[in-house]
Amino acid sequence: MRTPHLEPASFTLAAGECAGVSGPSGAGKTLLLRALADLDPHEGEVRLDGVPARRIPPPVWRRRVGLLAAESAWWGERVRDHFQGDPAAGLERLGLPAAALDWDVRRLSTGERQRLALLRLLENRPEVLLLDEPTANLDDAGRACVEALIRDYREAGGVAVVWVAHDTDQLARVATHRLRMDAGRLIPVAA
Amino acid sequence: MHLIHLTPLDLGLAALLVLALALFSARVHLDVARPLLIAALRTTVQLLLVGLVLKAVFARVHLLWIGGISLVMLLLAGREVMARQRRRLAGWWGFGVGTLSMFVSSFAVTLLALTVIIGPQPWYQPQYAIPLLGMLLGNTMNGIAIAMDRLTQEAWQQRTVIEGRLLLGHDWGRAIGDIRRDSMRSGLIPIINAMSAAGIVSLPGMMTGQILAGSPPVEAVKYQILIMFLIAAGTGFGTMGAVWMGARRLFDERQRLRLDRLHS
């Protein structure tokens, strides 16, 4: 698979695995995730359970291969407008009150946005999770909650995760194997 | 009835008002002085030329001739729609989307009015066909230009939201749905305002012209009502068609937002 700013990259991820991707800013980590979610035009092929992406309608693909962008988007007035069901259990696990659903989205802090965006994405029950700096704006406690939630989700559902982060200590904690992105090239890192 | 003729001096006095506006807007750095003056100049030259050729146009009752003139009007209107957008669709799409929508809506409504409602003999009699088409094209052009400008501008600014919705598995129509609705609405606001205010706040131009030229007011009013309805239908359907096509063009076959298809 390749895009204009990305060298050809090829890797396989089994269910339950978590690939930790690190690398300098501008190396193409976000572009890699966007191509995997089929949000940017790219050459090559991405397969899910052996089925190429082009055989799967795009909205279905993006529900099954969920990308959590570094910057989340909110279009409704209340947090509730962005959820299909009631994420009560998730809110509690991430240290957010149940009343958070009635909050005005313009008044969310970046950390709150990040945690709510994760819960919103998990509502789709994605089989592959693509995470772009999912804890960048969180304190230590918040980071631990998010890491634990994603680990449980991955292990319970046999979900594959691609986790992009600058923090290599975090990747050492959460990833089953590591990749490094440098100037558009994806290189495996020996364990 | 006696018609008071306007002298060049009369028109010159009115032109001074536009000139004053241009000077004032330049002083407050509004950046519209140039386009304003150019538009005023164009209106003078274009209308004078049309006045001269309309006599010849009306004299030749021939379907091909009328069709040719209509085509020229359509292409010019299409060019205007394209020129008024800050971020238009790149390539032929920038011209094609607006022009095709105007063609379908304006020509269909004009044909309907000529054949079913007004019914001149023959139906393409230029004295009816050309002014009617002109009114429809002019208004549809405005609606489409406003709506398309809004659509492309908003899509550009709200990229994060559109992509955020795509990422949650919304299809393209849902992802850009709010923007599409707002764009269509903004294209329809001028004609809705015009219909609401007609007769109370404003006397519509066509009717005023007819009355000034000596027609009985009630006849002028009936024509004005007809024209308003035709314009509303033409503008509405034209705007919806253009916005729908334009929005579709912003996404590719894998429903990715393709802002690279906008001319920046």
Architecture overview:
The complex is a heterodimer of chains A (191) and B (264). Chain A is of the alpha/beta class and 191 residues long. Chain A has a single domain, classed as Rossmann fold (3-Layer(aba) Sandwich), CATH 3.40.50.300. Chain A has 6 helices and 8 strands. In chain A, the strands form 2 sheets. A 6-stranded mixed sheet of chain A has the order 4-5-6-1-7-8, sandwiched between helices. Chain A has a two-stranded antiparallel sheet with strand order 2-3. In chain A, a hairpin with a 2-residue loop joins strand 2 and strand 3 (51-52). Chain A is globular, with a radius of gyration of 16 Å. By secondary structure, chain B is mostly helical. Chain B has 2 domains: 1-59, no CATH class; 61-261, no CATH class. Chain B contains 10 helices and no strands. Chain B has helices at residues 8-27, 33-59, 63-83, 92-118, 126-157, 159-167, 172-175, 177-197, 205-212, 217-249. In chain B, helix 4 runs antiparallel to helix 5 and helix 5 (126-157) packs across helix 8 (177-197). The longest helix of chain B has 33 residues, at 217-249. The radius of gyration of chain B is 21 Å and the shape is globular. Chain B starts with 7 loop residues before the first helix and ends in a 15-residue tail after the last helix. The relative contact order of chain B is 0.12. The chains are: A alpha/beta (191), B mainly alpha (264). The A-B interface holds A 37-41, 53-54, 58-60, 62-63, 66-67, 69, 71-75, 120-121, 124 and B 160-161, 163-171, 178, 252, 254-258.
List keywords for this structure.
heterodimer; A: Rossmann fold; 31% helix; B: 264 residues; mainly alpha; 10 helices
Detail the topology: elements first, then pairings:
The complex is a heterodimer of chains A (191) and B (264).
Chain A: E1 18-22, H1 29-36, E2 47-48, E3 51-52, H2 58-64, E4 65-68, H3 88-93, H4 110-122, E5 128-132, H5 140-157, E6 160-164, H6 168-174, E7 177-182, E8 185-189
Parallel strand pairs in A: 1-6, 1-7, 4-5, 5-6
Antiparallel strand pairs in A: 2-3, 7-8
Chain B: H1 8-27, H2 33-59, H3 63-83, H4 92-118, H5 126-157, H6 159-167, H7 172-175, H8 177-197, H9 205-212, H10 217-249
Helix pairs in contact in B: 1-2, 3-4, 3-5, 4-5, 4-10, 5-8, 5-10, 8-10, 9-10
